[in-house]
Amino acid sequence: MSDDSPSETREAPIDDAVVHRAADETGVDPDDLADALVEFNAALLGQHSKFEREGDHVTVDDVRAYRIPMSSWNDVIADFSFEEDIREAVHRAHAEQARLAFASTADADEGFAGDEAGVVVGVDTAEQF
């Protein structure tokens, strides 16, 4: 990834530092992970109402973070043919970014249960109204 990249990875609402940590933890190339996150983010757009029905959410800096059942996470990621290490890195990046978002709000005292996953999705202008 270039040094002049924005704080969020391309079109995915994941901070570069989070991408690098998830890549390091799973042994994947950060650029490959960033590409997967962009692809995955495109599939998440428009699913806000589904995620809102399934769990809690917070909005921070035009990014909505959800705490959803792990089964919902598995359903969404199942549509992708990511290799297992990339799949795990995508999961870790979303989980960390969601935890950071929740931690920056009044909901900070509520952690994620073992059967919950974090997912983050950008909020476009139309969805804010």
From TrEMBL:
Chain ranges of the DUF8048 domain: 12-122
Protein origin, superkingdom: Archaea
Classification via InterPro entries: DUF8048
Pfam families for this protein: DUF8048 (PF26222)
Name listed for the protein in its UniProt record: DUF8048 domain-containing protein
Organism whose genome encodes this protein: Halogeometricum luteum
